[in-house]
């Protein structure tokens, strides 16, 4: 089987020991992903990849079947995008450590480069206030043509996705697991609704990848990275939503925080963000104005 340059990206994405930053250095040094993949052990050691990592990579490369992996993607109808693809999110090329590969499920990959992507994130343990506020804001954003981006976690993420679907809008779920691992499993129905009807499910992690301690925080950079702005609806100061907000700030994106009851623990994070200068979002219009979305389509 003849492999394209793009196909060799998959090997590095699956290996896992060589992240986006190292992959970029390897590709620049050897001239292509193919040549980096085929490099000798001597050459890999020469560029200070390290003896342990080099040995692990050589072993992995010798046991990995790119042909079988590509056939499995085709069987599961999983697409994959790399930096040279038209549908690869151009905004991700502006951030630190853009994913080597984005695995994609859904019928409309063009959504990834729409101009009106808005991330809506928050606590897994939302209050009634948080649920109602999320539904109101997402409905308003969707009516204006925005695509809702979130992480398909319990709580605010799930509410954001579901509300977008109910409003006949589009939504993108960014997973912290392999593209085919539904987590939490209680979102099985939501996962397939997004894939078959309302948008895309994407992940930088290959099929079969189970979540780790770092995989969810790392995927948050993609949530904020593909979006024009990030809206935080409830969350403690240590929550994953706050990690997403920090990524958004580092990426030069707008951050919006929904004010909440001062005596509510779930308002701790949003209160902190507002004190630090985040945009206050009491409704969808505040977000639309802050992002300068001035037309319906």
TrEMBL record:
Superkingdom of the source?
A: Bacteria
Q: Name one GO biological process term.
A: DNA-mediated transformation
Q: Which Pfam families match?
A: DNA_processg_A
Q: Where is the Smf/DprA SLOG domain?
A: 80-290
What InterPro entries would the database entry show? DprA, DrpA_SLOG
Stored PANTHER family:
PROTEIN SMF
- Family indicated by similarity: Belongs to the DprA/Smf family.
Protein name per Swiss-Prot or TrEMBL: DNA protecting protein DprA
**Which species?**
Candidatus Gottesmanbacteria bacterium RIFCSPHIGHO2_02_FULL_39_14
């Amino acid at each position: 089987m003849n492999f394209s340059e793009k196909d060799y990206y998959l090997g590095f994405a699956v290996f896992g020991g060589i992240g986006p930053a190292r992959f970029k250095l390897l590709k620049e040094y050897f001239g292509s992903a193919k040549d980096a993949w085929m490099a000798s052990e001597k050459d890999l050691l020469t560029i200070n990849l390290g003896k342990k990592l080099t040995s692990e990579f050589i072993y992995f490369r010798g046991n990995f079947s790119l042909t079988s992996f590509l056939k499995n993607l085709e069987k599961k109808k999983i697409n994959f995008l790399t930096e040279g693809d038209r549908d690869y999110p151009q905004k991700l090329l502006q951030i630190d450590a853009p994913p080597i590969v984005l695995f994609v499920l859904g019928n409309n990959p063009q959504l990834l480069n729409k101009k009106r992507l808005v991330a809506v994130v928050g606590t897994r343990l939302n209050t009634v206030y948080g649920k109602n506020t999320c539904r109101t804001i997402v409905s308003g954003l969707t009516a204006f043509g925005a695509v809702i981006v979130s992480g398909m976690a319990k709580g605010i993420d799930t509410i954001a996705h579901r509300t977008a679907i109910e409003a006949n809008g589009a939504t993108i779920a960014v997973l912290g697991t392999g593209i085919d691992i539904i987590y939490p499993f209680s979102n099985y129905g939501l996962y397939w609704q997004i894939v078959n009807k309302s948008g895309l499910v994407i992940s930088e992690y290959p099929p079969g990848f189970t979540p780790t301690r770092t995989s969810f925080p790392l995927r948050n950079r993609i949530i904020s990275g593909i979006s024009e702005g990030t809206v935080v609806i409830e969350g403690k100061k240590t929550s994953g939503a706050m990690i997403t907000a920090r990524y958004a700030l580092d990426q030069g994106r707008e951050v919006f925080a929904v004010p909440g009851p001062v005596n509510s623990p779930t308002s701790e994070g949003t209160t902190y963000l507002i004190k630090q200068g985040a945009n206050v979002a009491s409704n969808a219009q505040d977000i639309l104005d802050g992002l300068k979305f001035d037309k319906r389509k």
